[in-house]
Amino acid sequence: MLRAGGGPRRFALLLAAAAGAGALADRVLDPPSSSTAVHASVSPPLRQALSGAAAGLLRPASSLFSPWAPLPLNQGFPILNSFASASVSPANLSNQGSAGSTDDSKCGRGCLGRETFAKAASAVGPAVVNISATQDFHGWMAEKSIGSGTIINPDGTILTCAHVVVDFQSTKPVVRGKVSVTLQDGREFEGVVLNADRYSDIAVVKIKPDTPLPAAKLGSSSILRPGDWVVALGCPLSLQNTVTAGIVSCIDRKSSDLGLGGIRREYLQTDCAINQGNSGGPLVNLDGEIVGVNVMKVMAADGLSFAVPIDSVVKIVENFKKNGSSKHILVSYIDILVQIRRVVRPWLGLKMLDLNPMVIAQLKRKSSAFPDVRKGVLVPMVTPGSPAAHAGFRPGDVVIEFDGKPVESIKEIIDILGDKVGIPFKVLVKRANNVTLTLTVVPEEADANQ
């Protein structure tokens, strides 16, 4: 039963009431002196259909029916945000936070609450430090490098970027000078560069605190997905305690995609705002765990920031510990003597490409001799004189097993190689016309020219 009077506003009220939107009706009621009664008794399907129409009718008539902007015949009324279909009444709306609830305790893992980012930042923030390296020649400051770092051990072990504390542009890598580390509480210490790796741009700095320091928790970058929220912390332009947020744009941005030569590397791409001074600072997930180390951004471009995945960083630090004790390069700056320990990386001399069904189908169309494979790693090029060339690899080979393990990606081969140099590996390959053979390759240590 529908009955109303009083023109368009009353009709809109009727539609709102029919949709079960008492809160919306309260907003369009005339003063209490009005004597017009409104009654509604409709079926649930009609109530749902009328809900959108009610929201549309509440707009000024000119915006709906202006002669120069007619509504499409098949589109119906425009739907506005209204309390007609909201699960929270207007009376309770003022108690809701921007994320919908003030009680984050009811928000499970993966749920965004109003304190989600604040909690992630506060979990890591006390461990984030400001790092500066100053070269001073006879009282003149020649250059100052600024960056960030994260305490990963209460004893004062700090993770940062190598380019912040080491100059790799000279003929030999040298520490940029006196390394100063400022904690979040304002205390300042002199740091010593223990390890630095040019290719990953990762370094370890050590300070000697009087008491244990807050240390950040390391997470895992392997479980990240494009679209996951992340938080970047650091000291851009020496502005301590700076926090920005964004999402993961790409989980495996290759160095070749960025025009970077040398050894193959992969980065996390995010749209977090980072600037000079953020280098070495942590990239954090919403659980307050480090998932990357911010290393660079694209100049004159917004939303293009890159971090070294923490899983790769952990392997580099382990490599420091394993290979740094007996093999190191001694460099000095005035009266500072530091060990810059190298990371051992095996080199095969293979250009490789991950295969997928679409690429395989395209290659089969180009050449009927292409081997019948469903997965694997294609070898489009072999470096002359390399370990792979000595092993008998040829362009067009498809690697299907490496060291007895099935492989379908370059990353799997890199993980199997690890830091093993001078150790023979059995590789099962398929080549043209389905010829299958086993090759033995002995990786060499990579150098700057490979």
UniProtKB/TrEMBL annotation:
Keywords, in A-Z order: Hydrolase, Protease, Signal
Family affiliation: Belongs to the peptidase S1C family.
A GO BP annotation: proteolysis
SMART domains (alphabetical): PDZ (SM00228)
Keyword Hydrolase found: yes
Domain PDZ: 337-410
Protein name: PDZ domain-containing protein
Family annotation (Pfam families): PDZ_6 (PF17820), Trypsin_2 (PF13365)
Leader peptide range in chain numbering: 1-25
GO MF entries: serine-type endopeptidase activity
